[in-house]
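Below is a filled-in request sheet from our internal design queue. Each sheet records the structural input a requester submitted and the sequence that came back. We keep these sheets so that new team members can see what a complete request looks like end to end.

REQUESTER: design group, bay 2
PRIORITY: normal
MODE: inverse folding
CHAIN LENGTH: 446
BACKBONE (tokenized):
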């Protein structure tokens, strides 16, 4: 019995003077991987990324967990807010020094003991709350968590090391990392509130500690992708020994980060106040999660594009788009008073956040001296935290003394300040030397 040809194969027949190939059907062709597929096809990238995400998720849990835990047991939101503010201030002071040690001695040697110290601080806070210790012990315990390393910064430093000389791939990596930040700060508070409300007030902090320690230990074990410590591999030069704060073009970037932090902090407080005024305070977390979801989706999409010209040329446009879109929540709250329409407005407004932060972090990386990348990015995060604290205070004052609807003018004002700084700052070049970097390539889809 003759064999039947299989679809998708070719049958070769011989005639007197030629070899003929008869095609019985189309062959399956593999679709080339997209930019994210090519990014994670590199050896070791998936392992350190998953571990870092595990360690990064608690960053969105600890603050909410502490507030719920302290307010639930001590009956004072004022005390809970003061304790978390103290921890924020301590982190702003300690984090750059921790990052400098990470750059100098390596991620594994510094991040693990620093994380263990922070974990002990969180456990001490749980113990103090549970045993009814004096209030001052809560401040001391939470301040001890300031040694937590900048997990997102360490992940970005690994990408910068692995993708050195490939700006297109680094743009995709930075886009992914910003989207990961948004995802963690979207899921973290929801997870913390669920754990504290479903089980017991200390559950959110305890789970956060377990995730942080496990993630850092696994992350530090991925030694093949770890960037070399600057203290052992580079020779001291005037550029590398200079603090990132003093690098050309860096102070304006940090000033913009401070203003953007005020946007985030004020938006969070004002949204909670608006939802509370509408009688739906419990829905505030989901409304804010929509804003983070919009930013996460926009960040992943932004990473698929390549742009002509240097990043600093499109930086003011990103900030301008963010400022313009922040008018939508103000209009939705003022004109309609509808929480549903406000949610849609925040979802759209959030779509400008990730592109702005991605471009900002790209410029921070390129203007940071060699061997001090973790420190430079941590300074940017510190500026954001300081802005969040200021924005929270300003948004809370406006919501209480004016109205929650009018208070949405605070994030718009903060974004306008960021835009003014971005527009009036003379360019220093992406590499911090005054020379424009034109390696971004032409506009194309990945």
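RETURNED SEQUENCE:
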């Amino acid at each position: 019995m003759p064999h039947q040809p299989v679809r998708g194969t070719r049958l070769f027949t011989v005639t007197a003077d030629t070899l003929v190939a008869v095609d019985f059907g189309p062959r399956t062709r593999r679709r080339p991987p997209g930019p994210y597929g090519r990014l994670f096809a590199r050896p070791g990238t998936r392992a350190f990324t998953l571990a870092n995400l595990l360690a990064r998720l608690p960053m969105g849990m600890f603050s909410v967990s502490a507030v719920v835990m302290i307010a639930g047991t001590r009956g004072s939101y004022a005390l809970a807010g003061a304790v978390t503010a103290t921890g924020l201030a301590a982190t702003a002071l300690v984090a750059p020094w921790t990052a400098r040690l990470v750059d100098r001695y390596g991620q594994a040697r510094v991040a693990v003991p620093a994380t263990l110290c922070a974990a002990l601080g969180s456990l001490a806070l749980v113990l103090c709350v549970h045993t009814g210790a004096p209030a001052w012990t809560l401040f001391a315990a939470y301040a001890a968590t300031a040694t937590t390393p900048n997990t997102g910064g360490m992940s970005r430093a690994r990408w910068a090391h692995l993708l050195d000389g490939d700006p297109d791939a680094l743009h995709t990596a930075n886009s992914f990392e910003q989207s990961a930040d948004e995802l963690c700060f979207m899921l973290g508070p929801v997870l913390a509130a669920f754990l504290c409300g479903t089980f017991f007030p200390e559950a959110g902090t305890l789970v956060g500690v377990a995730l942080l320690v496990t993630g850092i230990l696994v992350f530090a074990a991925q030694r093949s992708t770890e960037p070399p410590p600057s203290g052992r591999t580079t020779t001291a030069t005037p550029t590398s020994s200079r603090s990132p704060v003093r690098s050309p073009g860096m102070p304006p970037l940090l000033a913009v980060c401070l203003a953007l932090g005020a946007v985030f902090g004020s938006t969070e407080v004002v949204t909670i106040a608006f939802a509370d005024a509408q009688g739906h305070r419990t829905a505030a977390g989901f409304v804010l999660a929509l804003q983070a979801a919009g930013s996460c989706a926009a960040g992943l999409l932004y990473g698929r594009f390549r742009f002509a010209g240097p990043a600093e040329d499109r930086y003011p446009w990103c900030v301008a788009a963010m400022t313009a879109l922040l008018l939508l929540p103000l209009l939705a709250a003022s004109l309609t008073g509808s929480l549903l329409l406000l949610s849609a407005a925040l979802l759209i407004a959030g779509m400008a956040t990730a592109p702005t932060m991605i471009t900002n972090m790209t410029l921070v990386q390129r203007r940071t001296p060699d061997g001090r990348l973790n420190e430079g990015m941590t300074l940017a995060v510190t500026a954001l935290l300081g802005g969040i604290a200021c924005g929270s205070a300003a948004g809370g004052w406006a919501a209480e003394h004016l109205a929650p609807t009018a208070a949405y003018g605070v994030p718009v004002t903060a974004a306008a300040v960021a835009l003014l700084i971005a527009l009036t700052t003379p360019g220093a070049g992406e590499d911090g030397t005054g020379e424009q970097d034109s390696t971004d390539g032409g506009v194309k889809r990945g």
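SHEET NOTES:
- The first strand starts at residue 10 and ends at 14.
- Strands lie at 10-14, 19-23, 305-306, 444-445.
FILED BY: M.R.
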